[in-house]
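Suppose a colleague, Dr. K., hands you the sequence of a protein chain of 427 amino acids and asks what its three-dimensional shape might be. Before reaching for any lab equipment, you can write down a predicted structure in token form. Begin with the sequence itself:
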Amino acid sequence: MFVGFILLQKDDLRDRFVRLAGSRDMQRTTVALDEAASRLSRYLFLQTCINTCFGLTIGVGLWLIDIPNAGLWALMSMLLRFVPYVGVPLASIFPLTLALAVDPGWSKMVWTATLYGSVEFVVGQAIEPFLYGRSMGLSAVAVVVAAVFWTWLWGAIGLLLSTPLTMCFVVFSRHVDSLKFLDVMLGDQPALRFEESLYLRMLAEDPDEAADEAEDFLRANSLSAYYDEVAARALMLAQTDVNRGVLDPLRQSRIRDAIKGLIVNLADRKDEAAIGADLPESWRDAPQEPVMCVAGRGPLDEAAALLLVDMLSKYGITARVVSSDETSATNIRELSCEGVQLTCVSYLEPGTFKNARYQVRRLRKHMPGVPVMALFWGLTGDHTRYLDGIEATECDIVTTGLKETVQHILAFARRSAASRPSYQAAK
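The predicted structure, expressed as tokens, is then:
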């Protein structure tokens, strides 16, 4: 009767709930209600279909085993399976007891127990996760905790309603700022973004675990996207901690070593764009490095430059990393520049234009005629306030991402290879 009255007055109750929960933001409240209703209806529909198939399978199996009243036990199995965890064991008690009573031996009881155990294992571990997908929106831990909490609060009825009720709470928490902690604790969304998780692995100096998580990302993305969107952003998080003074030199060294280990673990990975890249023969696997990557003066700029060097190697371009100390005013005279056709200075954060300007001037003086480009990894989004600083660097090209930088280097390689024959003929 209670459910019937609610269904008859559902429109009026919905309007009252919208006014109570979010009359100032009716759009967000409506979206939350629609999402909760959609998830809940999909969950209940799929659960009904799965339990019906479960009951039919059990009924056919009990009939083949020759258990009396197989249809009755199949119906009970279908209904009791709506109760999480304890429903199937409760449903199996009656057929098991009957099998023990009608069979002088143990075979029917063993077959009945095997039937219930195998069907429940297949349905619970293979079919349900595939069909439910992300419709529930709950983590595995949340389902267990919800069952314990609602059972403690309302007994058997709470156990029956634990998953739908918790699902509704999690959906509402995604749209109510003050309840965001429920979504974090109980939702199925990853607790950390890819770059945050990688940063933790780098702090723990665990490149193997980082490479394992990278494999998950690379199933749907390219290696250059991983370097750009995950590895570089993780280094930016580390750079932020360096600027705040909370990352000591030992941990900075661990992060650099972790990046090196990650690159080694992903050495067999190929970038999709590099497979059909048209690279001139004079640049492909050249005996001398045609590209020199100069790291900024930040403690983690060298780690970021290693990502660029590794990506260039996927295209067949050999490159090397030069530290900022090697290009300082006192040491740049000893810097070897044989075979260098392009120089790229790499900085994690955009607030280093002054250092980049003098860095570029020293490189131009030491290697006249060699183009210089700058890669500012953190210069994303609206960077109009940095335009004066960018122009002051006097670089030929300024890029803000790994993929963009590689494309510019490839374009320069093609132009230089195309102009070389005419230059030699003129000479």
